[in-house]
Amino acid sequence: MTTALVPRIPAPGSAPGPGAVGRPARRRRAARPGALGAASGLGLGVALLWFSLLVLVPLAMVVATAGSEGWSGFAGTLTSSQTLSAVELTVAQAVMVTLLNVVVGTAIAWVLVRDRFWGRRVLDVVIDIPFALPTIVAGLVLLALYGPDGPLGVDVANTRAAVFLALAFVTLPFVVRTVQPVLEELDADVEEAAASLGAGRLTVFRRIVLPALVPAITAGAALSFARGISEYGSLVLLSGNLPNRTEVASVRVLTFIENGDTTSAAAVATLLLLVALAVIVLLDVLQRRVARRG
Amino acid sequence: MASTASAGRLREPTAVRWLLRLVAVGYVVLLVVWPVSLVVRYTFADGLTALHSAFTDPLVTHALQLTAMVSLLAVAVNLVFGVGISLLLVRTQFPGKRVLSALVDLPMSVSPVVVGLALLLVYNPRTGLFGRGLDAHGIQVVFATPGMVMATAFVALPLVVREVVPVLEEIGDDQEQAARSLGANAVQTFRRITLPGIKWAVVYGVVLSLARSLGEFGAVKVVSGNVMGQTQTATLVVEQKYQNFDQSTAYAAAFLLALASVVCIVVVSVLRPSESRES
Question: What is the pTM of this model?
Answer without folding.
Answer: 0.86
